[in-house]
Amino acid sequence: MSIDGELVVFIICGGLSVIGALGMVLSRKAVHSALFIAMVMINLAILYIANSAPFLGMVQIIVYTGAVMMLFLFVLMVVGVDSSDSLIETIRGQRLFGILFGVALAILLIGGIGSSLGDKPDIGLKAANDEFGGNVEGIANLIFSDYLFAFQATAALLITAGLGAVILTHREAWKPKASQKELSVARFMVGAGHPGNKPNPGVYARHNAVNTPAILPDGSLALDSVPEPVRSRDDSLIVDHRAVSTVVELVESEDQN
Amino acid sequence: MNVYTPILVLGILAFGFAVFSIVIASFTGPKRYNRAKYAAYECGIEPTPQPMGGGRFPVKFYLTAMMFIIFDIELVFLYPWAVSADALGAFGLIAIFLFLINLCLPYAFEWRRGGLEWD
Amino acid sequence: MSGSSFGFFGTDPWWMVILKAVAIFGMLVVLTLFTIWWERRVVSRMQNRIGPNRVGPAGLLQSLMDGFKLAFKEEIIPKSAHVAVYWIAPVISATAAFLAFAVIPFGPTVSIFGVETPLQLTDFPVSVLYVLAIASVGVYGLVLAGWSSGSTYPLLGGLRSTAQVISYEIAMGLSFVAVFLFAGSMSTSEIIAKQQPIWFAVILLPSFLIYVTSMVGETNRAPFDLPEAEGELVGGFHTEYSSLKFAMFFLAEYINMVTVSALAATLFLGGWLAPWPISLWDSANVGWWPILWWLLKVQLFIFMFIWLRATLPRLRYDQFMKFGWKILIPASLAWIFIVATARVFRDDFAFSNQQLLIAGAVVIAVLLIGSWLLQIRSDRKQAAIESEREQELLVPFDAMAGGHPVPPMPGQVLAYTPRRVLAAQSVAAQVIPPALDSTPTEETPNA
Question: What pTM value is reported for the model?
Answer without folding.
Answer: 0.80
